[in-house]
Write a structure and sequence with these properties.
single chain; 421 residues; alpha/beta; UDP-n-acetylglucosamine1-carboxyvinyl-transferase, Chain; 2 domains; four-stranded mixed β-sheet; 14 helices; elongated; UDP-N-acetylglucosamine 1-carboxyvinyltransferase
């Protein structure tokens, strides 16, 4: 099992290109199921999760060709309507095939995802919405089974804001008979990106980016070409890294307009940030200031940035209160940060982070995707050598992070388990 070995203390300097957004690419790949025509995608990040999604679609009969970050998919020969447990258990986003399959083919069998290290993330809102659209849903041997002759438009209000739930229902509604109104819809840029692709495919959608999306169903969709938006979480992670280590970096292929809450918070921490149409420059020449935060749905501060900003707070001047409002178990990185010398206490959904002047390297273990990023940031700022185990979590959502960091001057290398000793 690969690990990362980091020798801390190096300032970050130079340019880095931000990859396409994982959380946008996954539903967009699933949208290929909505048409028999080719879908040409650009800026698809090369990640374990996107590869897993392509493998799942391939098992269903979707043909795909990849060249770097360009992917072409064609679902004209779909011969399986099932998403098996073996793939769903490794990536909960597999549930996103449910809406497209039942909309186009009238049936879907998707394994229940099971537990998740950062929270339950139930699929009941997906099921409730599809039932409102006329699907008959049953649970059979660990599978969600949906059947319908044709989905029919309806007004759907989810009990909570759910990004994947909004995406699944959006993809289902575009082929439904009549008008669907999604109330309490997620407003995330990744939802907007999916809607923009669907519109290119012939869907009739209004209100995406607000909490009320109106979809007028069409009989069929056609092929399209689309470029996936840049990953705001990857961009934010690199900004947290330079905030913790000091230095001056330029992010290319990024969009400051969708990063408002993160940029505001890092500005409070002391980063000097300037932005352009597709770039962000950030420099840090002092110890960061502690910044309190509460995670919220977009346009609030993303839960996916909480762990990385906590790593920054670990070496900051002052004390920060961090409140996690989205997932119940998203403080699993705290005990590992404390192994590096961080001073953090947890009480339910609240963490109190008292900044220390210096972290010290140690062996730590990643427990989830964003936790692994926070440990890398802490390792970059720590004195001595930090080894991060279980970085397969990191590879799910970051494209060659260690290579990009090394190009910025970080002393970081990937080592196999055999090389550890």
């Amino acid at each position: 099992m690969d690990k990362l070995r980091i020798t801390g203390g190096a300032r970050l300097q130079g340019e880095v290109s931000i990859s396409g957004a994982k959380n946008s690419a996954l539903p967009i790949l699933c949208a290929s199921l909505l048409t028999a025509d080719p879908l040409h995608l650009a800026n698809v990040p090369q990640l374990n999760d996107t590869r897993t999604m392509q493998r799942l679609l391939g098992q269903m009969g979707v043909r795909s060709e990849s060249s770097g970050t360009d992917v072409t998919l064609q679902a004209d020969r779909v011969d399986s309507l099932e998403a098996p447990y073996e793939l769903v258990k490794t990536m909960r986003a597999s549930i996103l095939v449910l809406g497209p399959l039942v909309a186009r083919f009238g049936e879907a069998r998707v394994s229940l995802p099971g537990g998740c290290t950062i929270g339950q993330r139930p699929v009941d809102q997906h099921i409730k919405g599809l039932e409102a659209l006329g699907a008959e849903i049953t649970m059979e041997h660990g599978f969600v089974v949906a059947r319908t002759t044709r989905l029919k438009g309806a007004s759907v209000r989810t009990d909570m804001v759910t990004v994947t739930g909004t995406e699944n229902l959006l993809m289902a509604a575009v082929l439904a008979d009549g008008q669907t109104i999604l109330e309490n819809a997620a407003r995330e840029p990744e939802v907007v990106d999916l809607a923009e692709l669907l519109i290119k495919m012939g869907a009739r959608i209004q209100g995406h980016g607000t909490d009320r999306i109106v979809i007028d169903g069409v009989p069929r969709l056609h092929g399209a070409a689309h470029t996936v938006i840049s990953d705001r979480i990857e961009a934010g992670t690199f900004l947290c890294a330079v905030g913790a280590t000091g230095g001056d970096i330029m992010l290319r292929n990024t969009d400051a307009a969708i990063m408002g809450a993160t940029l505001d918070k890092l500005g409070e921490a002391g980063l000097a940030i300037t932005t352009g149409p597709d770039w962000i420059r950030a420099s840090m020449d002092r110890r960061p200031r502690a910044v309190g935060l509460r995670t919220h749905e977009y346009p609030g501060l993303a839960t996916d940035m909480q762990a990385q900003i906590m790593a920054l707070n670990a070496v900051a001047e002052g004390t920060a209160i961090v409140v996690e409002n989205i997932f119940e178990n998203r403080f699993m990185h705290v005990q590992e940060l404390c192994r590096l010398g961080a001073d953090i206490d947890i009480d339910g959904h609240t963490a109190v982070v008292r900044g220390v002047s210096q972290l010290s390297g140690a062996k730590v273990m990643a427990t989830d995707l964003r936790a692994s990023a926070s440990l890398v940031i802490a390792g970059l700022a720590a004195e001595g050598v930090t080894q991060v185990d279980r970085i397969y979590h990191l590879d799910r959502g970051y494209d060659r992070m260690e290579v990009k960091l090394r190009n910025l001057g970080a002393r970081i290398e990937r080592v196999s388990g055999k090389e550890e000793e």
